[in-house]
Amino acid sequence: MRKGVKILLLSLVFISFVYLVYEFIEIDREIDRLRFENPKITSLMEQRIEEAKRKGRNYKINQIWVPISRISPYLINAVIVSEDASFFSHGGVDWYEVKESIRRNLERGRISRGASTITMQVAKNLFLSTSRNPLRKLVEVLIAYRVEQKLSKRRILEIYLNIIELGDGIFGVESASRKYFGKSASELTLEESARLAAVIPSPLRYNPNSNKRFVTWRVNLIMNRLLAREKIKLGISNESGAIE
């Protein structure tokens, strides 16, 4: 009996390994295509559609893709300082944040702090689910490394800004800007940009125009970071991380 159980477990491990390799090959091909093509639908979008179906409700994807050149520099900078300040200097994973995340989560006895970089969020949104299990996080890291190897920082940021969830059925900063502020993402002011970036951690719970404590606190934090780092300038100059 024990021998049979061992064989069964080994078989399951082998099948899982083969499936994982196959999945990575397919994902690797998709990452290659992202250099020239925009993704039509993400895993997160598919997950939200399935969740809505199970609840018996209609779900419509509201997304308008725009090039990064048509996104307000205020918003670009607000997203970077709020979500991944070292975006231009890491290779997909911010190991300092990983260490701090582990320390904080161990102290609290639960997962209360993440360590996802912008690249890891792109990997998760495009190819994975919102599950927080350790195995999924490992796969997220591996995909993030491949994304960094194959795509430029500018392209990664452009994809992120166009696929990020910012409300019920709202994906990308252009759709969110029109929904919450009645204008294009290229026209957002500093405060509007900070408000949009403020709700990224909980887009289904908070509205950028809300005066709830969490939103107000995040807006002030983001604006103070922007001012302290003197990053309120125009555009992205190069791959070294300079923002102009």
TrEMBL record:
InterPro entries noted in UniProt: Glyco_trans_51, Lysozyme-like_dom_sf, PBP_transglycosylase, Pep_trsgly
Source organism superkingdom: Bacteria
Protein name from the UniProt record: Biosynthetic peptidoglycan transglycosylase
GO CC term, one of those recorded: plasma membrane
EC number(s) given by UniProt: 2.4.99.28
Membrane spanning stretches: 7-25
Membrane topology: Single-pass membrane protein
Pathway annotation from the record: Cell wall biogenesis; peptidoglycan biosynthesis
GO BP, sorted A to Z: cell wall organization; peptidoglycan biosynthetic process; regulation of cell shape
Gene Ontology molecular-function annotations: pentosyltransferase activity; peptidoglycan glycosyltransferase activity
Localization of this protein: Cell membrane
UniProt similarity note: Belongs to the glycosyltransferase 51 family.
Organism: Candidatus Thermokryptus mobilis
Keywords annotated in UniProt: Cell inner membrane, Cell membrane, Cell shape, Cell wall biogenesis/degradation, Glycosyltransferase, Membrane, Peptidoglycan synthesis, Transferase, Transmembrane, Transmembrane helix
Purpose: Peptidoglycan polymerase that catalyzes glycan chain elongation from lipid-linked precursors.
All residue ranges annotated as the Glycosyl transferase family domain in the record: 59-226
NCBIfam families membership: mono_pep_trsgly
Keyword Disulfide bond included in the entry's annotation: no
HAMAP family, A to Z: PGT_MtgA
Pfam families per record: Transgly (PF00912)
The protein's enzyme class: transferase
Catalytic activity line of the entry: [GlcNAc-(1->4)-Mur2Ac(oyl-L-Ala-gamma-D-Glu-L-Lys-D-Ala-D-Ala)](n)-di-trans,octa-cis-undecaprenyl diphosphate + beta-D-GlcNAc-(1->4)-Mur2Ac(oyl-L-Ala-gamma-D-Glu-L-Lys-D-Ala-D-Ala)-di-trans,octa-cis-undecaprenyl diphosphate = [GlcNAc-(1->4)-Mur2Ac(oyl-L-Ala-gamma-D-Glu-L-Lys-D-Ala-D-Ala)](n+1)-di-trans,octa-cis-undecaprenyl diphosphate + di-trans,octa-cis-undecaprenyl diphosphate + H(+)
Keyword Transmembrane: yes
